């Protein structure tokens, strides 16, 4: 059996021999998978970026611990999911599956039968309803944790503009004309994708994001460690659409590409040009580029913002769904959730981040450089 943080036996990756008519079940720490399986996971057609191999390995921080697969006799992977295990309150065995998954799928059932968790959480689910019983566990909580504003992209940029509201259809071309009038010959748009994205441009966009958050008296969550962790994913799946004035990036979007869909994770602009609406212009140029290269959807992650509705995003809730192996585990799970919500620590953490953002906004550039 494999090693799992703080709770299970130590050993090697586990592959179960399939019974007649059954697919083989493979369960391993993500760091221990074979090169062959890693290659298959990299090319596996995950329906969404959330829950895909690249997302779980290089976006989620810290990275996901484990992977489980159903494998055909010829070695092809039929189903796969990524998960974490830990102990809750020191003795409850908790298992969390990352990304959209069918709670009643064969893979979930075999994973639960093998790992025997007291609490099962399916995180970042896109469905709106869930079965009361799944893999022998009873549903006890459904909680909204994030938002995905999905834009269905048409075949032509002109069609996209027509599907927006009257005011947005009027304002976006006006912003572009005003920029041309005020910065004529001084600016250019640039698209960099995959290996063409440089570390300098990536960190420049993150710095603009920090300035934007600082102006809102908040602290950006893009720490140096997270940026380094996600850098390989940016180099393989990332795209930056930037607006440059001279050599400086003054506005940009950073998105991740998955199959024929794109996922916006950062939008930023230089706050000294707030009046020019550079963020909206960059987002519009991003949409036009995605349409031009044949993408079918653009997801504006993660939280609610008015501009996402302006740009035609249809809100889809992302939920964490929790199941319990028995009534005692469910009761204790509910108590722990209640304690967590009443815990003042999250409040103080939010207050600390707001205070740090406020103090940062009061600093001079010279002070920042010294720090």
Description:
The chain is an alpha+beta fold and 371 residues long. 38% of the residues lie in helices and 30% in strands. The protein has helices at residues 35-43, 53-58, 106-115, 157-162, 166-182, 199-215, 224-237, 278-292, 306-310, 327-342, 344-362, 365-370, and strands spanning 14-16, 24-29, 66-71, 77-88, 92-98, 119-125, 133-134, 137-152, 187-193, 238-245, 248-258, 261-269, 297-302, 314-324. Strands 1, 2, 3, 4, 5, 6, 7, 8, 9, 10, 11, 12, 13 and 14 form a 14-stranded mixed β-sheet that branches. A hairpin with a 5-residue loop joins strand 3 and strand 4 (77-88). Helix 6 packs across helix 11 (344-362). The chain is elongated.
Write the layout of secondary structure elements.
Blueprint: E1 14-16, E2 24-29, H1 35-43, H2 53-58, E3 66-71, E4 77-88, E5 92-98, H3 106-115, E6 119-125, E7 133-134, E8 137-152, H4 157-162, H5 166-182, E9 187-193, H6 199-215, H7 224-237, E10 238-245, E11 248-258, E12 261-269, H8 278-292, E13 297-302, H9 306-310, E14 314-324, H10 327-342, H11 344-362, H12 365-370
Parallel strand pairs: 5-6, 12-13
Antiparallel strand pairs: 1-2, 2-3, 3-4, 4-5, 6-14, 7-8, 8-13, 8-14, 9-10, 10-11, 11-12
